[in-house]
């Protein structure tokens, strides 16, 4: 089979397409023939060794000093079960599935082995491979942070950066959970963000954000906990989704007026991707695809994600 590898840190030129043996599923595992995957902000952060502020040393210690320890990137995928190992009950050959290896990565390959108890689920009715592949990354991040924020119906939620993979998920899931959602984005993306359920959209190229909010979901680092105080209500929560070490440390103590900062990595779970499939089926959540690249063009998908301006997800398709 073929897979894309980043064996050292750097620009898109470090990516190489290599041949390797197709894995065999062991007991409790399934082999998935990948039809679609994505290139997202996590892939380009790892490829470029561009970790959030203050986490470069710890990032290299954990993920690899001179290059990614897991050189096969790719956090999410959709495809068809090719074979199952002994004892697998949840899946059969031919099932259409989507999966979220998340931080373990390894989705930029023609075949991927997953544990049947891992974050892998059946593709809901009505979802194509490209859309199913792009359901998990933004969606699970938004679910994690909304849970941590203990969002209550009628809370006011300000999403800073409403048009990225995480931002579009945060807008939809916040709205579904009953929040009044305001989102910032550039002029070009105002319509897209409104179309995903924002009650109001602020063009960030015009004067600064005003008003008071119960929750600020900062997906771009447009504010920090200090500047967020100007627009946060007492007891408000500032979600430093793009935050680094300072935010993780700062989150350990409360802010003025009982405000709270929440930071750190989002969890990855079967429950959350199953919930996203259910929400898709109920019409409350969908992924937005900015552009689809072919398998040999995966480096172009990295270059697109590198711009920091993608709208929703950038998908790479391997088969129809
Ligand atoms: N904590 C965690 O576990 C976790 C999990 C996932 C992601 N993240 C982090 O969250 C961040 C967002 O991830 P993502 O995948 O959503 O990124 P993304 O899809 O690459 O975000 C791109 C979007 O950001 C918007 N943007 C850029 N600067 C902006 C600004 N100043 N104000 C408003 N919008 C702005 C762009 O819109 P315009 O073109 O309109 O500017 C673009 O649509 C990344 O830093 C990522 O590392 C953290």
Automatic annotation (TrEMBL):
It holds the Pfam family ADH_N. Residues 10-316 form the Enoyl reductase (ER) domain. InterPro entries: ADH-like_N, Chloroplast_QOR, ER, GroES-like_sf, NAD(P)-bd_dom_sf. One of its GO terms (molecular function) is oxidoreductase activity. CDD domains: MDR1. Gene3D superfamilies: Medium-chain alcohol dehydrogenases, catalytic domain, NAD(P)-binding Rossmann-like Domain. PANTHER family: ZINC-TYPE ALCOHOL DEHYDROGENASE-LIKE PROTEIN C16A3.02C. This is NADPH:quinone reductase. It comes from Pelagibacterium luteolum.
